[in-house]
Fold this sequence. Notes:
Blueprint: H1 7-19, H2 28-41, H3 47-59, H4 63-79, H5 83-97
Helix pairs in contact: 1-2, 1-3, 2-3, 3-4, 3-5, 4-5
Amino acid sequence: xxxxxxxxxxxxxxxxxxxxxxxxxxxxxxxxxxxxxxxxxxxxxxxxxxxxxxxxxxxxxxxxxxxxxxxxxxxxxxxxxxxxxxxxxxxxxxxxxxxxxxxxxxxx
Length: 108
């Protein structure tokens, strides 16, 4: 499936593939592909998208890259006073530091 070049769409789909509690809906490799595209389209300028990339790396077991992306997202979120992304980045980093992927319930 080729996703449109909408960073928001790519990010939402990648977040589901990376973090959904149902293992049948997770796909780390696809989450990484979608996240990397979203980040490239925004020139790594949106903390929320970088955070999704961190979650995707964690789902794929690439915890070092997940930690680096998580820290990047946290720094960017803090610099722009994005408190909700900062809080989520902190939670994700706790999981990553324990070598665990992050799990999130789908938003309603």
